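Section 5: illustrative case.
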């Protein structure tokens, strides 16, 4: 019995000792001083590229659960938000020569979807589901303009636009659409709509192409009618006609002049010939946009001074403008020092126009400085008279001007140019001189056209039958 009691007591004592020890250890850790570091925000952060990284920081103190003293923290590491990557940030707390650190990972990524901007409200598609031209743009925070990457799809009665940036973020927009085709085919005549053939020469049609947005190539379905009798002087019409599968019709007429000698046909009263020298250049595209907007055809006396823009010759020609020759180099000292130099230079620009237009041989000319320039005699006395004669023999026709815009040096003011032109328009015809290499002059064109249209003028491109307008040669 005694032995049993003794054993019980021993057990109680043992348990008491163990419990006391545990309480002691517990209190020791509870009261022990140490750093307490708590990250504000996530340990792994993902932020968008080019955004601002705002440091969330840490809460740091030194002490125990009853009392913890705030301590200073040093931050090590930088986040370059302009460059994708993983950036490690370290937080080092120090107190009484002791320190402790924790860290966080900041990932800079492109996590932003591109923007799809629908610049129209109504969309339509072809009867064969081909998606029509639409005005939708895409921009991205990293890749910039992604408009050319937009993909379209027709699904479940919706037209879907999709675009992905280089990081794989995808933007999708769905719109309603109508199924219809109101766009007529486009017939492009390879040699333009105005052709001159010398009496008894052979005339060969240089061909055409017909393109329809919905139906594709309709060249072989296009009907051609009309004949040219090159044995007889006169104006002949060739008609090109086509209908697409939705019944949209296009008719184009080509005028072929058969001539023995160049004839001049008086234009209707109040005709304006807008002419642009020295280009094509930086502002030619802008000018062509304005001319297109008002369906005005003009004349470009072109050079090779800004070859980077030479494709504007192709565009101007295809859009129905007259292309004339203003020499290749526009270098007075070279072209006016001999007839041979001038003709060689003229031939260079003529070949270039021929190449860029698919075979058009321009016979329209404007002399640099005009027929009455007084610079040429510095290089060769009498050369302008010689050149005028040489051009005539070769079937060229040169044009001066009777309305000065003043953009050749007199003014750089767009309003002044508008005023110069509109205040000197003639009752019969006006040949206006401007330069499409001058931004302030190109900017005047829209107002000049508006003025002309509001006041009963009509606009024509120059051709070989246009009035032979020359200044008096002065050499
Ligand atoms: Zn010029």
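Designed sequence:
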């Amino acid at each position: 019995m005694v032995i049993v009691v003794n054993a019980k007591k021993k057990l109680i004592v043992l348990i008491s000792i163990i419990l006391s020890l545990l309480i002691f250890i517990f209190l020791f850790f509870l009261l022990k001083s140490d750093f307490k570091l708590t990250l504000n925000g996530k340990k792994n952060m993902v932020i968008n590229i080019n955004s601002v990284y705002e440091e969330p920081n840490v809460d740091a103190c030194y002490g125990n659960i009853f009392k913890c003293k705030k301590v200073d923290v040093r931050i090590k590491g930088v986040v370059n938000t302009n460059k994708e990557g993983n950036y490690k940030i370290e937080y080092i707390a120090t107190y009484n020569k002791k320190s402790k650190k924790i860290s966080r990972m900041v990932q800079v990524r492109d996590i932003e979807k591109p923007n799809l901007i629908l610049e129209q409200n109504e969309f339509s598609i072809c009867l064969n589901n081909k998606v029509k031209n639409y005005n939708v743009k895409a921009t991205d925070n990293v890749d910039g303009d992604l408009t050319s990457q937009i993909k379209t799809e027709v699904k479940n009665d919706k037209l879907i636009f999709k675009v992905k940036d280089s990081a794989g973020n995808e933007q999708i927009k769905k719109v309603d659409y109508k199924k219809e085709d109101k766009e007529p085919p486009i017939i492009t005549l390879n040699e333009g709509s105005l052709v001159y053939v010398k009496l008894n020469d052979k005339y060969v049609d240089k061909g055409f192409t017909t393109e329809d947005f919905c139906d594709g190539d309709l060249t072989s379905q296009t009907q051609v009618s009309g004949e040219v009798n090159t044995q007889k002087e006169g104006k002949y019409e060739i008609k090109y006609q086509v209908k697409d599968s939705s019944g949209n019709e296009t008719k184009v007429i080509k005028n072929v002049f058969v001539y023995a000698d160049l004839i001049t046909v008086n234009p209707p009263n109040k005709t304006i010939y807008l002419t642009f020298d020295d280009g094509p250049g930086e502002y030619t595209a802008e000018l062509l946009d304005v001319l297109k907007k008002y369906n005005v055809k003009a004349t470009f006396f072109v050079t090779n001074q800004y070859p980077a823009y030479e494709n504007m010759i192709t565009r101007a020609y295809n859009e129905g403008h007259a292309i004339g020759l203003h020499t290749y180099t526009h270098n007075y000292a070279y072209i006016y020092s001999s007839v041979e130099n001038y003709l060689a230079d003229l031939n260079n620009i003529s070949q270039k126009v021929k190449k860029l237009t698919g075979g058009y041989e321009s016979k329209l000319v404007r002399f640099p400085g005009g027929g009455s320039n007084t610079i040429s005699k510095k290089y060769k006395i009498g050369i302008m008279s010689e050149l005028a004669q040489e051009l005539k023999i070769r079937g060229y026709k040169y044009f001066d001007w009777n309305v000065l815009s003043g953009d050749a040096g007199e003014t750089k003011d767009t309003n002044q140019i508008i005023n110069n032109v509109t205040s000197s328009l003639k009752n019969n015809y006006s040949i206006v001189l401007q330069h499409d290499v001058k931004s302030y002059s190109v900017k005047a064109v829209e107002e000049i056209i508006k003025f002309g249209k509001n006041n009963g003028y009509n606009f024509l491109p120059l051709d070989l039958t246009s009035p032979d307008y020359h200044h008096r040669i002065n050499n």
